[in-house]
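Review form for a predicted model. The reviewer records the input and the model, then writes brief findings.
Reviewer: anonymous (R2)
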Amino acid sequence: MSKVTISFVLNGNKLTAQVEPDMRLVDFLREDLGLTGTKIGCGEGDCGACTVIINGETANSCLVLAPQVDGKKVVTIEGLGDYEHIHPLQQAFLEEGAVQCGFCTPGMIMSAKALLDKNPHPEREEIIREISGNLCRCTGYAKIANAIEKVANHSKE
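Model under review:
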C-alpha cells in the first residue's frame, strides 16, 4: 500500500507526514510522533482512553484513520500543558484526587476541555453526560466531575 501525505495542525504546530492509508490516528500519534499521552484502551471506541479533539469536537482516535485529519486541527493531552505550564483541568484533577491509575485521565481531560470550550459554565448534569463516553475503573466519577466543576466555577469568578 502506498503512503499518503497529510498536513494538519497538531497541538498548535503545522505538521506534514506520510502515513499508511489504513493507519489509525492513535497509532500515528503514539508510534510515529511519540505522543503517548493518548492511551489505547479497548480499540473499539467504547472506553474513551484515546480521546482527542479534532476541530473542536472530541473523537476516539482509535476509530479515526490518520488520513482523515488532513487539513484539520488536532489537540492531544500533550497540547494542554507540561510540567512548567500545567493546564487548569490537569491541576484540578490533581487537587480533587480525580486520578488513580491515570489511564483514563488524558481522555477524561480532553472530553472536559472540549465541554468547557463550548460551555465554560456547565451544570453538573451536563458534565456527567459529556464524560459518559470515558470509562474509569478506579475513581468513580464524583471526583472527576468535582474537578471539572472546580474549573468551571473558577472561570465564573
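Findings: The mean pLDDT is 94.
Further findings: The chain is about 35% helix and 15% strand.
Recommendation: see findings above.
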